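Something for you to look into today, if you have time. I want to see for myself how the chain folds. Leave the record below and I will have a look.
***
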Amino acid sequence: MRLINNGYVVQDLNWSIFDQNSYKGVQKFKSWPLRKYNDNESIMLEDFAWKKWFAFHGCFEIIPDVNFIKKYIDHCNQLGIEIRLLQIELPIKQMVTASKLSVKNVLGYDCVAGIELSYLCMHKQDLKKYFPTSSLKINNNGLFDRIEDSYEFLSCYHKLINEGVNLEDWGDPIPAKISEVYLK
């Protein structure tokens, strides 16, 4: 299945969700950091994002509008929030961006069910135990270098779930190409 540039995610580099140095995918840092601020601009930006992009069933919290991303990042900078900007490419067409930002670093392919829910975000010993073949293909960012490896991992994951193995199951994970990008 072809991946589509669905848009962008802003993450707070000082608000780590998963404190394991080797994993650098979507679940590493907290996305959309203005949620924790109560100033008028933060509230306005968060409300707008929820009403326009986030408040729909089955949506990933990704924003395709680079002009909005610029406003969001400008306000993060004003508040002293150190951020990274991720480009998210998924095999879904529900949201597509026409903007193409310059890629700083392709992190790899994650397996996600949400913008803060990665199925690769697990401790190395669990990855090796349940996914011995896939664990050998994980890159330095805790992700895969090839989309085919993501699909192989997901196939194994679904097989284990169907066999009754107690793995967390929070939705229907799909491959996602994750890249750090520059805002022009």
About this structure: The radius of gyration is 16 Å. The chain is about 30% helix and 25% strand.
